[in-house]
Every structure is written in structure tokens, then in C-alpha cells.
Amino acid sequence: MKLWGGRFTKATDSFTDHFHSSISFDSRMYKQDIEGSIAHAAMLGRQGIIPMEDCELIQKTLKEILVDIESGKVEFDEKAEDIHMNIETILIQRIGDTGKRLHTGRSRNDQVALDIRMYLKEQIKDIKVLVKELMTVLNNMAEKNTDTIMPGYTHMQNAQPVTLAHHLLAYVEMFKRDYDRLSDTYKRTNVMPLGSGALAATTYPLDRDFVAEQLGFAAITLDSMDGVSDRDFVIELLSALSIIMMHLSRFCEEIIIWNSQQYKFVEMDDAYSTGSSIMPQKKNPDMAELIRGKTGRVYGHLMAMLTVMKGIPLAYNKDMQEDKEGVFDAVDTLKMCLPVFTRMIDTMTVNKENMYNAARKGFMNATDAADWLVKQGVPFRDAHAIIGRLVLYCINSGKNLDDLTLEEYKAVSTVFTEDIYNAISLETCVNTRTVKGGPSEEYIKGLIKSNKKIIAEMK
Q: Can you give the pTM of this predicted structure?
């Protein structure tokens, strides 16, 4: 007989049991379910809702069940539907009618809302640690490459010279925002719904604040209907995870390009590459490609959850059981991708010479040449046109701007002097951009130092 079976005159179909059951995926919340039940039992005893001796026996037995689960001595039953009823069934089997008192003053609706919040709080903490480790690796790598000049791109066309440090620190900024989003999501996850009952709370004199304190929650939900039907925190976490995956995917795309034979900016470590079954020369950036591919998987879970929730009237509906598999898989996917990505970046070899040579091509110093003319009193639009004509001349002649003789410069504008050569050197192009946010070595070193402090203070 089901724990809820008093109303029914016949058993559910075996296929219904399988379709209805969530134990195959929510069993991972066994620890949170037991911890929540222990705190609930303590509150019931403290409030005199159940005898204190029953409270103590329930708590003691739940702790024993936790040990047995973690040692592999417990096998969950699909017919008990979910982790909550599985544990309650085991409790009743062990201590009889006393175990039946545990569910006093609560519903599976507020119980599952509690469990998933507790579980995701722990996962958010774990993910924040992984993001912090990645930021540390990127910042340290930047510190080693403050003078590694490389092309900066817009529209995937050579644009202006930057440094690898500047490029890497752009991703540090992205992951800082990701870390903040996770922290914000944690705040809204860290609210306890237990005591909301099925949707309208209960007539028992529950002390919800006591339970929240026991379980480490910062606050309690203030409306019982919202308490059982809110899954904003799941959607918010899926959104934060999707954005992290998007950032990883963008960087993976660049790594894949940089690792190609056409670029050769980096070489992936053998430990994070694979070969071809037919082409013996191949060394493929499969880890980067897999992370890029798995990004769509996490996006899918976000869209699925938004779709599940969009038409649900208050309060709890069984549709909401669909919250778990998606967010569990998204969390698992990200927790797998982040360490692989971090190690892949940390072990790759940077080919500084190839980066520098690539920065010499494509007239990446053209803007600096125009700026030099402006500083000599030439209006910017005129300077832009002069350098445009020089670029066209270089293209037709197969030259770069720094290959031109002074006579060739003067043939287009008499304003040019020998000083133009220093002005358009890659080192000058990078290091005279001292505006905050720019690529100059002086500014970048300061940013790296600031990042170290910020990362060390992240909690």
C-alpha cells in the first residue's frame, strides 16, 4: 500500500509506477532529505507536536539510515516513487508507528522544495570554487604574457595589436561576472520553504525559523503558495550555468582556431588532445570541441525549465517534477567541463613568435599611424584617408606599413617624418594605450595584481 493510498481502491498500474517515479534521479538528494527530516523532527519534538522520545528515536534512526545508504546497504524501491517516500518507508519499517509521526505538519510539496534548495546550495558552492580556480589559472597565465603581442580581431579580421594577457583578462572579467551571478542565485536559493505544507501551511504550531537555522538557511519563504511552487531559483541557476558555458564555449572556439595549422598560436598538451583513427598526423582539440558541444545541452535544460513553468497555475503541479533531471544534468555537465577546461588552458603551450608575426600582418598599426598624423595637426578624417591610401599602396606592393621608406610615406603626405616608425611599432601600439582597460603592459600588470586580491577575497 502506498503511503498515500487510503483514498484509493486499487493499486496503480506497474507502468504508472514507473512513469510516476522519480527515484531514479532524485535519489541523489538522500542526504538533504534526511538532514531536512532530522531538523523537522527536532522541531516537532521541541514544539510538543510529537513526544520527545519519538523525536529522538526518529532522529537516531534517520542517522542510521544515512550511514546505511552511504555504505551501500540500502536499495531504493521504485514503487515508493521518490527519495522522500523511500526514506520514510525505510524509517517506518525500522521503528513502526513512531516513524509515521515524522510527516506531521509537512507535505511532499514543501519537502521536495526544501531538498532541491539544499542540494543546489551545495552545488553552487562547488561551482564557485571551480570558477575561482579557472580565474586563478587565467590570471597567472596573463602574468606570464604581459609582453606577448598578438592580433586583436573584430569580425575575425585583423584589427589592432593587443597582448595575450589582455585577451586572457577579458575572460577573467567574464568569469568574475559569472561568480557574482552564482552568488546572487545562492541568495535566492538560500530561503527555506518547509512549513508551507501542500500549499496553505498547517494548523500545527511549527517553528519554521528554528528549522531554517538548523539547516543553515538565511530566511524562510513568506507565502506558502509561493514556497511550494517557486522554481525561479532553478531557472536562475540554469541561466547562470548557461552563461558560464557560453563563456567557456567562446574561449574553446578561439582555442580551436589558435590550435589550427593556419594559426599555430598554441599547441594543446597531449593529455587534452586526441588522435585520428585513420590520419596518423592528427592531434585534435577534442576537449575544447566537447565543451563547445555540451554548451547546447545546458541551454536546452534552461529552455525546458522555462517551458515547463510557463503555464503552471498556483500552486504545486506534478509538472514541476521535471525540474530535477535538467538542473542535475546541467550541474553535472558544468562540473565536468570546468576542471577539464582549466587544466587544458593551464597546460597548453603558447607560440609567442607566431602570435607576434601574425600581429605584423594585416595593417594592425594603421589606426596608430592615423593617430600619429592627428597629433601632428592633421584632422582625423584626413588622417584616416591618408592612411587608407597608404594601405592600398601596401596591398598593391606586397608590403606592410613598417616596410615603407620615408620617401614612400612623403609621397602621400609631406607631414610624415622618421618618428612615424616608432609610432607604428607593435610595442608602441600596445604600450601607449594606457587608458584604463587598454592593453599597455603597465595597466595590465596593475590589473593582474588587482585580480589576485579580488580572487583571494572571493567567498
A: 0.92
